[in-house]
Amino acid sequence: MTSADTLFERIIAGEIPSDVVHEDETTFAFRDINPQARVHVLVVPRKRYRNVAELTEADPQLLADVLRSCRRVAEIEGIAESGYRVVFNTNAESGQTVFHVHAHVLGGEQLGLFGRFG
Ligand code: 5GP
After folding, report:
1. Measuring from atom 15 of ligand 1, which residue has the nearest CA?
2. Is residue 112 part of a domain?
3. Mean pLDDT within 71-91
4. Where are the transmembrane segments (predicted)?
5. pLDDT of residue 1
């Protein structure tokens, strides 16, 4: 067992179990442990960047890989046509809690509005 340092690196390495939906050479997709919609899948690049801003600057091709993987997840989950939302929480006030960039893929039912707390 390796000792990768962040939660998502440990999930990707299989050290922490997860419900894997899709994986490829550069990305890894698994169900959120606390789903906010019927379908709630996290898509992460295997290589760690802190947030989507860092990823965009450092490796736009990898950002495209993440978005392609989101589309693939939507197809696998059968929500590509009915509709889905892709969210990148970025830094503290957005609610980002895990600082390994990840896209939330949400769908499978009518989604509500989002924005201000309360
Ligand atoms: P953030 O708040 O950083 O945008 O999203 C982090 C997400 O990771 C949350 O939606 C949270 O439920 C999810 N999460 C936290 N710990 C785990 C875990 O151990 N396993 C899985 N599958 N999801 C997790």
Report:
1. 33
2. no
3. 98
4. none
5. 42
